[in-house]
């Protein structure tokens, strides 16, 4: 049972403490504004001149003072209460603010020793910001203490919950901008508190920052009556604490009290759950902070109000280099923070400024929780042989691959019962995707009401099910980024819902891989099932194999795509994915009964190669090149390809057929385009340079061309796949509609092998007849042809 | 001023009326269950036998009784109050329910005359459901009265608001399942009521249906205490009306009263706004309907509770064909509705069943609002010449293309001021995307608090800004599907947020295009700006050109992609897009100052061709084939290509260079793959079959290969584009980082034109030097080389 954090109904902050907090805040504001404007003269030791100003003024001032206020007050409570804390900065474009705070507390200089905590380092800090070759404008991976870039709004709160799960001693503060609060993903994330276990999970403290404006508009939540906002937050299951104002002294006092109240309540809720076994869902606190946008910046510019309006969103004074009035106004603004009282002559922050700053790994810029690779442990993955299905002869027995994987995942769940560093997330599809064996090892996280009829709900469960792909993705990202492991199982079509989120995660990984101080984290693993070929209940809206295309546009050092054709290959691929680091692994696998093709040993060897010849399936005699290559990737295309090979063996026995199966799609790319890419020697060895290749692919056929267009044999490559011919129908009718069926593949072979068209006219007609028979049968019976339904490789 | 609807604080429903409502509901339940199970014997005129049962049992029973209840009670109020109404069925997988109701009211037989309203038609209705070659299981385009498929959950409420905008006489009911309510997009959509104008817009009546379960889990909103749910809905700005129960008679009575109360309140709010000029935002009603999942279905199956649990989600009795007990149970279940009392001997619904059904176009399955093409009028688009920028010499003047377009859009906005059938939507980026001229014609829709400092907010505005791409997309889809026009302006990277939504809309259009009774609607038009090459403020997270790849995977009859290279081509493309029907048009165009290349007439001609040679830019003399083709698509690549052509003209004057610009990306596809595709003769005429083509493309370079791989000259095609080398930097540094800059393009030419490498060593070195000079300059100054910043075509 994790210990509850120290409760500390602290006394009111003293005036001295408040003065020091204000000094810290002013210093952070000064440094944030300085980053937007200054190339030189960082301490204003001389009057500001145009050459001190950056040639291009870039950055977002508007949110920065609010973020600085939150950072200052988080520092205070972290120090006073000796908390382990992490903060998610939802308005990530307030990068200058988080950078300023990291520099003040010293974590920046520890991470980047050239940016020293003195005048020289301050100049570098300011100069590098949003400067070519410098640091990005957002709370990107380069920023110490960050796990959330914040550029694409909507995911802060989901990340915060993901970080808090299974970290019972951690406080995760989360600043939510009122702009971000309008997004769907954020709006849906509030209900994550129904999944947070007060015993085994840490706490999330949302701080809704109402600064009133987005880029050019007021925000919805800042313009509804306060009682309505209050009802909304209570409806989300929170107890709101309101802090409003524009007088710094008053706001400091109110914010310090609000923080203490919130943390006392959190401590009490955790204590009650952990020590008294209280199971009632706590009404966790939320702080509503209402302060002006661009607070302490220029009140007016060129006669227009700026502070407290949308005009302070980015750069409040745009003409500083050319307009002497703007330059003077900027100097006055910067001097209003009294830098001479905040930094000593060498540019080091004075003691008052640093009074609130905690020590060592408690500093928000130095917490190991924001560098999850420091915390991650290898996952205990059992021997695959204990879960493999026996395969004596290929294509004889059938298994549901995801169900077989479910047994393995259940064991991982069991073996991490004490460590609690593995979670399964999914939009209410764990059982639908046939992974239900995991419920023997862990129930589903649930803190809302439970009825007798419910199954597998568990206050301490580690399977996360909510009907929001956004929340699943956000939870898992937050969980991985703070040093744990997981898997997202999702319907293939609907994983597109998180296209944009996975973009951002891939960008994060690509960048953090290049930062030596960021330790590698566990990969983000997708299991995409209930795929395009088997949407018997749902039809066209549930048919889309394009996620693979989407991720293959992204950084090749991060993305991996696997299409295991049967149960044992799925085990092998999953094993690899769960052990890997810093990747996004996309695994597409069926949940429906599927022939077993490879034994466990064969599967391991095949998956290690990523693509290979299935000698047993072809008719090559080794003395000459094959006449045709039947290639396949994906479970359904593999089955149709094997059935086509079977037909060719029977009807055209002297044709030399090679069968190639591709598990790891990136193998098709040139070596120089992807770390898994084959060199031309390997590729040509598999596919030949001059023989027809009939490639049956799981998804959009042109993807294969996009991967293989540079190969010598590309002009002989003919790909079949999904071409949006979707509907509610039988599995075999789906492949017929998309010309991916066995009969069509045989016809393709006959049409493309030189000379065969004439020799095999009768066989071709027989194939065409079978397709006609299919159409008639299905109209009449609504089921697949018996010869298809009963087919197996050994028939 | 639109008239307010008739208010009718109707008397309590009589017992007779309630009995008739129940008859209608039972009939709908009977038909819904029948569709899932029956192949024959639709009226149960004989005992049920296995051969009456479908071989594959597919469909979703769980939600159907609730949807039937809502439909029945909507019928009642529509009829009593003579309403024009539309219903969005969020749980679209409850297809059998909506089909049943349409058949009952007769709209189904009017749309599909072979499915008659008698026993024979009933058998067909049942048989065709989820049957190969029949109708899909969801509320797909095939279903009369539907504008919302409901397969991918999350968009019902946004669609409802989109449908209600500018339809002052329309009631849009919207059933939201408690599963769907967990999604982010739905959670964010509740705040759409801050954008609904009670004067010019219709009303949205959300009906939150808590049936308690998703696929295998309870739902969050059904398991929080009712006061918490009530606070949540009040926080969303609604006044909740609760209806709960499992006794049909009591629920009918409560539901009838709830509907009357809700509609009275709506009528009163509209009357106050329209007749008294009240501007206070109304607290619109929401009905919370709590009834059992799978209500009236089998209470228990094989000893497990089914009715009222997740076990009734799909097919409650799965073994009917083989298990005599299940068969008996099914028969008892179906007979429990007393079909003999609902249908006459010919299978026609009896009078009682139809008593609540409204007439003609008021029937939910016959409303023209659900077949928006019947209502759509051509948009008044002014002459482009009035907005064109003058171009005497190419590449001399600069304009911001989107700002030029803004003037045109403002005129369209002005010219539709009375018709109110054109809206602009965007996530708070209209001004950022430089379309602010529209504010001279219409303000921004806003019903929340307004302060003096705010600009362009307008209770009756038709520009929609909210920081939710989901809401923007959902609103626009709903607006278009009900017969109006619009444009979505969005940051290029973040349109991926709606990848999945646009998938569904494209699927909808593809299907509805094949239904002769569905009239074409206005296209969904995207203006993607603030694009990958110009994210000076934001950097890597804001850089992603992959939406084009995403849509080009979808049905070619629906998708169109345009990359106008300057202001006048943008006008021409926008004009075409706004006039078109049933497409998804993606227009990618910059907002930053951009050279003007073509006059309006030239732009029109160029856009009509979609791709063409810019003779003035090349050095062909017409006597022989060019030595090299410089191709380009997109504004930034076009500029770099022209600059490269300029360098080649100066440094290698005897090289014969052709410049080809591509506006309409699908032109590159083969004719048989896309209606806009070029035949090989055209393609080869532009690009040659044997000369090097250096193609500078706006997005991921492999997309061009994917489009052109079948062309004869493909092996000579060399594409430059965005390869994820993103960060916060200058515009020219971005192209250098991605090898798309003018110097690199010249080097590519030298490397690829046979014999040139030797002859042009010095020129190549000069180009390499320029890149080195760039790197040094930018490190020092943070700006682009003066020779780049000051370049123009005529220099």
TrEMBL record, chains A, B:
SUPFAM superfamilies: Thiamin diphosphate-binding fold (THDP-binding). GO terms for biological process: carbohydrate metabolic process. Its EC number is 4.1.2.-. It is an enzyme of class 4 (lyase). Its cofactor is thiamine diphosphate. Keywords: Lyase, Thiamine pyrophosphate. InterPro entries: Phosphoketolase (IPR023962), THDP-binding (IPR029061), Transketo_C/PFOR_II (IPR009014), Xul5P/Fru6P_PKetolase (IPR005593), Xul5P/Fru6P_PKetolase_C (IPR018969), Xul5P/Fru6P_PKetolase_CS (IPR019790), Xul5P/Fru6P_PKetolase_N (IPR018970), Xul5P/Fru6P_PKetolase_ThDP_BS (IPR019789). Residues 14-374 form the Xylulose 5-phosphate/Fructose 6-phosphate phosphoketolase N-terminal domain. The keyword Lyase applies. It comes from the Bacteria. The keyword Oxidoreductase does not apply. It holds the Pfam family XFP. Residues 591-793 form the Xylulose 5-phosphate/Fructose 6-phosphate phosphoketolase C-terminal domain. Gene3D superfamilies: 3.40.50.920, 3.40.50.970. GO terms for molecular function: aldehyde-lyase activity; magnesium ion binding. HAMAP family: Phosphoketolase (MF_01403). Belongs to the XFP family. PANTHER family: PHOSPHOKETOLASE-RELATED (PTHR31273). This is Probable phosphoketolase. It comes from Streptomyces azureus.
């Amino acid at each position: 049972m994790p210990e509850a954090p120290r409760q500390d109904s602290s006394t009111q902050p003293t005036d001295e403490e408040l003065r020091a907090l204000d000094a810290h805040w002013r210093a952070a504001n000064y440094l944030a504004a300085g980053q937007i404007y200054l190339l030189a003269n960082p301490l204003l030791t001389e009057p500001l001149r145009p050459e001190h100003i950056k040639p291009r003024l870039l950055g977002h001032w508007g949110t920065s003072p609010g973020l600085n206020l939150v950072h200052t007050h988080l520092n205070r409570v972290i120090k006073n209460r000796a908390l382990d804390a992490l903060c998610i900065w939802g308005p990530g474009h307030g990068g200058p603010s988080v950078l300023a705070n990291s520099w003040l507390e010293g974590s920046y200089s520890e991470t980047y020793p050239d940016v020293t905590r003195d005048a020289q380092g301050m100049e570098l800090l300011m100069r590098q910001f949003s400067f070519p070759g410098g640091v990005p404008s957002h709370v990107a991976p380069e920023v110490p203490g960050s796990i959330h870039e914040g550029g694409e709004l909507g995911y802060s709160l989901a990340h915060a919950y993901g970080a808090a799960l299974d970290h019972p001693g951690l406080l995760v503060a989360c600043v939510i901008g009122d702009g971000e609060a309008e997004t769907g993903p954020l709006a849906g994330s509030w209900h994550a508190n129904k999944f947070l276990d007060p015993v085994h999970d840490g706490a999330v403290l949302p701080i809704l920052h109402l600064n009133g404006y987005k880029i050019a508009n007021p925000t919805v939540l800042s313009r509804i009556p306060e009682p309505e906002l209050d009802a909304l937050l209570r409806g989300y299951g929170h107890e709101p604490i309101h802090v409003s104002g524009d007088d710094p002294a008053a706001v400091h006092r109110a914010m310090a009290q609000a923080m203490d109240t919130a943390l006392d309540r959190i401590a009490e809720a955790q204590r009650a759950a952990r020590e008294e076994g209280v199971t009632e869902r706590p009404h966790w606190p939320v702080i509503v902070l209402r302060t002006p946008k661009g607070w302490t910046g220029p009140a007016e510019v060129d006669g227009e109000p700026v502070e407290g309006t949308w005009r302070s969103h980015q750069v409040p004074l745009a003409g500083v280099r050319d307009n002497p009035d703007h330059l003077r106004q900027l100097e006055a603004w910067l001097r209003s923070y009294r830098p001479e009282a905040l930094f000593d002559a060498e540019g080091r922050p004075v003691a008052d400024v640093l009074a609130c700053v905690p020590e060592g790994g408690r500093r928000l810029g130095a917490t190991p929780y924001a560098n999850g690779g420091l915390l991650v442990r290898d996952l205990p993955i059992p021997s695959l042989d204990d879960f493999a299905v026996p395969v004596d002869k290929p294509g004889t027995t059938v298994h549901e691959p995801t169900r077989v994987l479910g047994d393995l995942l259940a064991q991982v769940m069991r073996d991490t019962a004490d460590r609690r560093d593995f979670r399964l997330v999914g939009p209410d599809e764990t059982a639908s995707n046939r992974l239900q064996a995991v419920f023997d090892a862990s129930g589903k996280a649930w803190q809302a009401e439970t009825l007798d009829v419910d199954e597998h709900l568990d206050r301490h469960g580690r399977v996360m099910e909510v009907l929001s792909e956004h929340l699943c993705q956000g939870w898992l990202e937050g969980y991985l980024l703070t040093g744990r492991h997981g898997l997202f199982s999702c319907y293939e079509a609907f994983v597109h819902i998180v296209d944009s989120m996975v973009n951002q995660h891939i960008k994060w990984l690509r960048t953090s891989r290049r930062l030596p101080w960021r330790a590698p984290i566990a990969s983000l693993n997708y299991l995409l099932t209930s795929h395009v070929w088997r949407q018997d209940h749902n039809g066209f809206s549930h048919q889309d194999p394009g996620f693979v295309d989407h991720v293959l546009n992204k950084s090749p050092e991060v993305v991996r795509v696997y299409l295991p054709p049967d149960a044992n290959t799925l085990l092998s691929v999953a094993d690899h994915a769960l052990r890997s680091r810093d990747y996004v692994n996309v695994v597409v696998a069926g949940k429906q009964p599927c022939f077993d093709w490879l034994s466990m040993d064969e599967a391991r060897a095949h998956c290690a190669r990523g693509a290979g010849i299935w000698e047993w399936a072809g008719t090559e005699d080794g003395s000459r090149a094959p006449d045709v290559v039947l290639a396949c990737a994906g479970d359904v295309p593999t089955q149709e390809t094997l059935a086509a090979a079977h037909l060719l063996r029977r009807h055209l026995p002297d044709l030399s057929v090679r069968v190639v199966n591709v598990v790891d799609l990136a193998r098709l790319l040139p070596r120089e385009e992807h770390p898994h890419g084959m060199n031309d020697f390997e590729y040509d060895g598999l596919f030949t340079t001059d023989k027809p290749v009939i490639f049956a692919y799981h998804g959009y056929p042109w993807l294969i061309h996009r991967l293989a267009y540079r190969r010598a044999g590309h002009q002989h490559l003919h790909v079949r796949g999904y071409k949006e011919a979707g509907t509610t129908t039988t599995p075999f009718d789906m492949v017929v509609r998309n010309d991916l069926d066995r009969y069509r593949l045989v016809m393709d072979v006959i049409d493309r092998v030189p000379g065969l068209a004439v020799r095999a006219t009768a066989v071709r007609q027989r194939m065409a007849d079978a397709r006609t028979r299919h159409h008639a049968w299905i109209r009449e019976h609504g089921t697949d042809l018996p010869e298809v339904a009963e087919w197996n490789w050994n028939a």
